[in-house]
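User: We ran a pulldown and think these components assemble together. Before we commit to crystallization trials, I'd like a predicted model of the whole complex to look at. Sequences follow.
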Amino acid sequence: MIRLEQISKVFNQGRPNEFRAIHGLSLGIAADRVTLFTGPSGSGKTTLLSLVGCLARPTSGRIYLKGRMISALPERFLTDIRRSTFGFVFQRFNLIKGLSLIENVMLPAYPLGLPFPELRERAAGLLHGLGLGSKLENRVEWLSGGEAQRAAICRALINDPAILIADEPTANLDSALTREFLAIVEGLRGQGKGVIITSHDPLIAESAVMEAVIRMRDGRRVERMAMED
Amino acid sequence: MVIGGSIRERVARPSNRAMAWFLGLGALLSVSLAHALWFGLDGADPGHGVELVRELGLSDLALFTEARYTRHLSLADSHAAFQDHPLALDHFPTASLAAPPEHLRNPHVAGD
Amino acid sequence: MLQAIERQRYFIDYSLSSLARRRGKNLGLLTVYSLIVFLLASVMLFTQSLRQEAAAILKEAPEILVQRIAAGRQDLIPAAYLERMGSLRGVSEKRGRLWGYHFDPAIKANYTLMTADQHQLPPDGILIGAGIARARGLGAGDFLSLRGNDGKPAAFRVEGILPAETELISSDLILMAEPSLRAFFGIPDGLYTDLILKVSNPREVRKVAEKLTLLLPDTRPILREEILRTYDAIFNWREGVVFVLLMGALLAFVIFAWDKASGLSAEERQEIGILKAIGWETGDVIRMKFWEGGLISLSAFLLGYLLAYLHVFFADGFLFEPVLKGWATLYPAFRPRPVVDGLQLATLFFFSVFPYTLATLVPVWRAAITDPDSVMR
Ligand SMILES: Nc1ncnc2c1ncn2[C@@H]1O[C@H](COP(=O)(O)OP(=O)(O)O)[C@@H](O)[C@H]1O
Ligand SMILES: [Mg+2]
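Assistant: Here's a predicted model for the assembly, 718 residues in total across the polymer chains.
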């Protein structure tokens, strides 16, 4: 369970271009559900996602993860939590160019110092699972959009996180690939993982896979729709 | 499916190649050190050179034969022309800029 | 423990993979870097070896040399000075040296002519250094004709050639019997070029020299320690010249390396952000970059040093020949004997590896402490 209490995020605080992206937001996210942040562009979805995923710290307010307050932890611990709890799929995938597919997938586990054969096996297993088994040694620049996204998902899952975080995952995909993505999400849900997605794609918002939807506008929450509980 | 563990892939791992590279260079470095110890000045006998020096009472190396005052450096005095190296603030700054005159370099050509 | 090693190996994996992306540029950098280390190490090894060689050979030089100074210049010294000295305490042997220079216009070379009584040479017989033999194409039994001080050519028969391994001191020597040399230079009996004194106890050398200046006020004693110091210093000096020549290249490289190492491209910045976002700590990023700088500079150090070792001790330091030779025609062919000075090696290591590695770390530090959420944009 992730709990946000009175979260605000102010960019460029104290400067003339100060901007308040999140206004005193409070909400709870079930750690084993599929949650969607939706809303128009600029409404603060990505900002909220980076706060939830410990990529950034809120300007004020508190964030609790399984009852533990994490918003004030020093960077070291935050990195640790981020690594073990969250896997990220960025909007632009952010695969590292020049490295092979499998190297990219193994990357988040490098600081853990696992035995090499074990880590490689795990990465290869994930890639095989998402149909990229024949491209392990390919450079990532040569992947198509859908392949790059699946590679990014594999990379996000390499440390076996409890929650997958994906920012606008289907922004560049056609409907077929979008449905494929939703199938992957469903599969993860079946493995007991939680997924947090931002999107303003109706195909996603209308999907039955989404269990909770959080609507945003101008850094505020608009309404809450729970589909199952 | 032994994807991660094959010998070929382990060898291809960059850090393994780097290790082989540095082990190789390190081995060569050790060889050079051993070579220096074995054939170096400390180990080797000083050779006939020392005998000749003792016999003739030599005081200098025959390394710089271009001029008299460089052939026997240890015998040169402070008035010998010795101020023409690039770093010297010579009495005559020209000495560090200009090449020696032709009649000094080719004595038999000059003099007419 | 094993885990810690494995961790570092992963960082090495990453830095190598990322170096391989700009393979051409990085290989170029490594080449130039190695070349610089090569030049510095060559100078270092070469001069160190020469310095040691000089010290080893010249430790048998006479303890004291006495020159006569007349009107501010060195002049021939009368043999009578040997008697005027009397018997000085501690002096085990004293004798005159007879030698001089001869310029050979045929090959524009300076020879050093010297007497060698031990060899019992016939009046027209000479021993020559290997350098002269090479330059004039002479062998035993050949004749060498030199123009004497009376203007007439004098022909000498080459009795033998001085051993090649003594070339560093004998390359330009011509040894002959004393009467022949006196006749050739026109030096009357009873005059020498200078005097040499052997003093067995090193502690008495200075005292003897002091007494000499009192007894023979028109002479100048030169001590062996001064000779040794001269050679120590002269090689420093030559080293200095080479370093001056290298300075330009060195500066260019420093600027290039600094730019390469410290300027972080937008792409690299982005990459650091990604690494942090996917779970690397700032320290991990810095460790990875440390390896990147360290692997390059360590490779350059080892490559450059090993090449320099080959160059100096197996190829006779041929690149330095022009520098050391100057305008000389005679240059001793000698193979420097290997000397490795641990402190020098450590200094070279320090100055070739650390600055570059640090230069790679500085900007990474700045980039790595920023928040990782920038990659979400
Ligand atoms: N680093 C930043 N500095 C200044 N403004 C920012 C920064 N990041 C986001 N913003 C602003 O915050 C608002 C919310 O952005 P974002 O969370 O990316 O919205 P969304 O993902 O819903 O499109 C936007 O108006 C954006 O311009
Ligand atoms: Mg966004």
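Residues 224-262 of chain C form the longest helix (39 residues). That may be worth checking against your pulldown data before setting up trials.

User: Thanks, that helps.
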